[in-house]
Records
---
Amino acid sequence: MKAIFPLLASLPLVLALQAAPAAEPMANPQSLALVEQLGLQEADTPSRDYATWARPRKVAVLLPASWGAGRETLLAQVRAAAGGAEVVAFDGTSLEVLADADVVLGVCSPDVLEAAPRLRWLHSYSVGVERCTRFDGIDRHDFVLTNNQRVYGPDIAEHAIALMLALSRNLGAYGRAQRQGQWLEDAPQSMNVEGRTLLVLGLGGIGTEIARRAHALGMRVVATRNSSREGPDFVEQVGLPEEASTLAAKADFIVNALPLTDDTAGRIDRAFFAAAKPGARYISVGRGGTTDTPGLVDALQSGQIGGAGLDVTEPEPLPAGHPLWTMENVLITPHVAGRTDEARERAMVIAIENLRRYSLGEPLLSVVDLERGY
């Protein structure tokens, strides 16, 4: 990790040096440019119109110790955006500071919600918020939830493309041979991705970035999305979720970028894999719970699915002895697709911009529908 966060450190000095608590935090042009670049959605309703809104009194910001020297820079930026509210940092190991916090920047979990009875607004650093939205006790908490949707799209998309190319070129087999000192000449035949068909399951922020990169590689891209049949020009066809199996029948590669909700849990099941094009490669970078893991194992063992690249699994982490660990046609990374310095910088810029908006009662970015789960 970089010692400082250049995107954050470049915020105007007028933010970092505000002395009067009553001074209104000013919009930062660089932050607003990032909002536009990522295509973040602004709420139709100003936050001051929410029944739960009030000017924040205490803001608790998660700053893990592993972030090192950059924590102090971030803390100063949060204070500048908080509109005079008290700002305290916590590292996630102890939640006592949340007892009287009305705003939390960090993660949304049952433990956090129970520790923050006065919570009015929580901004999640992550995109997936299923730990909150699928929590049985969520109805006991009246708060607004926002997340960092689209922020990690470029990073996760690159990781998905890397897994796809590694599978197409049998890099797993060559890596194993290298560790054994073998010059492997009889590995399975590699394949080009140019001219092949990619199915993106979940054409949201991450899925769109995956599709963009696949199209640039000369691939034919089709996709599914929950909201409509519309998509960018580089996606040839957009279907609804119930059409996923039909689209999979013609896809050489399938990338799962679905969020985990009640509707998507286990959606990519045995029936889906049976309907897929024989030998198709499957990549999962959304949430492991959307995939029926035993069904995937059977499809890989039978050859119906020709290989898998998994950044997320169910369960996570995989237990010792799980068959996926030792399958030669499977690549596994430990949920690290979005873990880059650049992604963290973008995530904190958006969190701080949303805090500025909330402190002034302005419309928030990326408000989560608690019923839909995203």
---
Amino acid sequence: MLLDVENVSLSFGGIQALKDVSFSVKEAELFSIIGPNGAGKTSMLNCISGRYMPDSGDIRFKGRSLKGLKANHRPDIGIGRTFQNLALFDHMTVLENILVGRHHLMKNNFLTGMLYWIGGAQREELEHRRAVEDIIDFLEIQHIRNAVAGTLSYGLRKRVELARAVALRPHLVLLDEPMAGMNMEEKEDMARYIVDLNEEWGMTVVMIEHDMGVVMDISHRVMVLDFGAKVVDGLPEEVMENEHVKQAYLGADLGEAA
């Protein structure tokens, strides 16, 4: 398994955000987490990305425990993410925002820094810019590459945030409601990009999403959380047939997705 979450619990004061949650994600899998508001979905992503440290349990990535590894070091081992609320640098261009996502790949060793900047800086910058151009082409945002991020529509800004997360070149990318607030056409485009990242680029995806039609169409497996506890996980069709899930969480949306 690429990712193993083992009996993770998390609380804030007297509120239990996660209760003894366990699940695993295989390499190159597209794994979705669903559930009602307040179910603990974002809290789980925050534990994986290092923003929160669990009260108990363990999270293992490629067999390595993430205990004690700070959030700013998790991109170094191949974990990237987007946020439910956009976290772009609004005053910077699209190109500059995506380049920020490459920062942890740049060489900055103090002892070799002077020699590096004499001989290798220009070459490295060209390599990073080529990688960013590939992402821009892939996500079809060539026409806004020099636009200031804060001037873009919400749907385009969400696409730029995905581009920045992909620029980390992660083995695992965590997507927190990547389609929230989008119209139908924008959702279809985003779903296609996520599937292509998974299938063509080989990225493992853990995604939170409320659109049940999208979740059931593109996910390999789905986990349901409620009140911080795992209800069920399995293949999309298995989750859809779970009576508890149908009655409590999917409701009318399930019929629309079916």
